TrEMBL record:
Top-level taxon in the UniProt lineage: Bacteria
Species lineage: Bacteria, Pseudomonadati, Pseudomonadota, Betaproteobacteria, Neisseriales
Annotated GO MF terms: DNA binding; DNA-binding transcription factor activity
PROSITE patterns: HTH_LYSR
Name of this chain's protein: LysR family transcriptional regulator
Organism: Chromobacterium sphagni
Keywords, sorted A to Z: DNA-binding, Transcription, Transcription regulation
Family: Belongs to the LysR transcriptional regulatory family.
Domain HTH lysR-type positions: 1-59
InterPro entries in alphabetical order: LysR-type_TF_proteobact-type, LysR_HTH_N, LysR_subst-bd, WH-like_DNA-bd_sf, WH_DNA-bd_sf
Amino acid sequence: MGELKQLETFVAVVALGSLSAAARQQGVVPAMVGRRLDALEGRLGVRLLARTTRRVTLTQEGETFYEDCQRILADLSEAEAAVASGSGKARGHLRLSAPAGFGRRHVAPHVAAFQRLHPEVKVTLDLSDRLVDLSRDRIDCAIRISDLADSALVAMRLAENRRVVVAAPAYLASRGVPRALEDLARHNCLSLGESQSRGWSFVRDGQAVNLKVSGSLECNDGAVLHDWALQGLGLAWRSLWEVKDDLSEGRLATVLDDFSSPDYPVYAVVPQRRLLPARVRHFVEHLRAAYAAPGYWD
């Protein structure tokens, strides 16, 4: 057990970048983390980390050993998951992440229903529009709305989704209606900041196009961008589920429909694993069934 703790502590220090952060994650004092690292290096007879008061860096031997430790701990986690899933019963701590607006409407209500069905599962739901690092933040499953391109993750499609460019009628009356993608350069585009660093996506002549946009207002919370659009402050690129009521009631209108963006499906994203823990597998199935219910998105 002591040797396993040493490995877990070593991996945590490297992943989080400091002894104090690893100590907080593991619920111990930093001095304990230091003693575990000293014991590990003493047992192996090599220096794994170069430590200063400000940072820790891997030595050449440490880099190789870190990769081996990650694999060993992942294999152990999978072995434990296999035993747990063999009973088919979900249990343990399920750590979830989801975009703030979508999570409030379409994840949190289902988390409560899921927990009632699986009372032995403790659920922690993190709602944020930032792109979480599943490994660093110890997230079991993240809900994302994106054209996923991270090969280090496994994505399971949960539902379809479409993005549209919208604006309030008052804004369009004062600034004009954009007819071509190039017109966006003359408009105030409400941006999600770094989370939307690739720009807004469209299709032109059958080809996907990503356009960088700019404007006087930027926020990392999609709900704020939605409110700004309703106030007539600019154009916003939002998911249809978020603005469909505003469209039907005339508070917002779509523009550039001829260049409608590619589908941005809703995914459940998990780290690469050969076998998912039962709690994750059951939750993904729970969400997929909820989203597939007739009339859910209406």
